[in-house]
């Protein structure tokens, strides 16, 4: 690995020169951290990476040039970092479909299972109804719910048919559901303070 060495001249009283040197040192340190992270397959979530992630979460159509202007960072840095975030799977492209505009409705189905059988319920329901499933999860925390599904359906008859099929599974002890009436996306997502 090529190491860069900086010649720091402390005799200079020029504030601009000191600020320049501090920035230069920070860039060298950041580059070394990035190289180490890439070699160990770990991604550093510094302020630049977090800024890129937040900009894309809040506006998936934002251009790299707009992110560069917003963060005051060179475009090439933004493009390289964005590519690295995508390669590391921290950042994933995702499209959403407005199912209501397609004439479908969305419900969340919560299922309580008999001890240790949650994965079986999840697997069995998925095999039979993958065309309806938007997403599904095994859950902890609420003792009454072990499995949840978000499903798309055409009408109440289809939903009630799904619910009855789940209730008939011998591994299931309870089923509840609720319909999504409206959904609102958080357009100002910010999680950098959590890290």
Q: What's the overall geometry?
A: elongated
**Oligomer state of the chains in this structure:** single chain
Number of helical segments?
Answer: 6
Main sheet strand line-up = 2-3-1-4
Question: Could you give a short description of this structure?
Answer:
The protein has 195 residues and is α+β, with helices and mostly antiparallel strands. The protein has helices at 15-39, 47-58, 64-71, 75-87, 118-129, 156-167, and strands at 105-113, 133-138, 147-153, 172-179. The relative contact order is 0.11.
Describe the protein.
12% of the residues are buried. Helix 2 crosses helix 4 and helix 3 crosses helix 4. The chain has a 4-stranded antiparallel beta sheet, with helices on one face. The longest helix is centred in the N-terminal third of the chain and has 25 residues. 42% of the residues lie in helices and 15% in strands. A hairpin with an 8-residue loop joins strand 2 and strand 3. With 195 residues, the protein is of the alpha+beta class.
Features:
4 strands; 4-stranded antiparallel beta sheet; disordered N terminus; 195 residues; elongated; alpha+beta; 6 helices
């Amino acid at each position: 690995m090529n190491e860069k060495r900086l010649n720091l001249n402390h005799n200079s009283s020029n504030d601009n020169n000191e600020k320049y040197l501090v920035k230069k040192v920070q860039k060298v340190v950041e580059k070394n951290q990035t190289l180490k992270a890439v070699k160990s397959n770990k991604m550093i979530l510094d302020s630049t990476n977090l800024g890129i992630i937040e900009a894309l979460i809040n506006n998936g159509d934002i251009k790299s040039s707009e992110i560069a202007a917003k963060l005051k960072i060179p475009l090439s840095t933004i493009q390289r970092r964005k590519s690295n975030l995508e390669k590391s799977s921290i950042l994933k492209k995702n499209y959403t479909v407005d199912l209501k505009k397609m004439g479908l409705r969305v419900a969340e189905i919560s299922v309580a299972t008999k001890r240790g059988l949650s994965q079986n319920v999840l697997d069995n329901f998925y095999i039979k109804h993958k065309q309806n499933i938007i997403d599904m999860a095994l859950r902890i925390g609420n003792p009454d719910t072990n499995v949840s599904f978000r499903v798309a359906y055409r009408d109440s008859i289809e939903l009630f048919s799904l619910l009855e099929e789940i209730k008939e599974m011998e591994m299931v002890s309870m089923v509840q559901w609720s319909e999504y009436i409206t959904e609102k996306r958080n357009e100002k997502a910010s999680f950098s303070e959590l890290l």
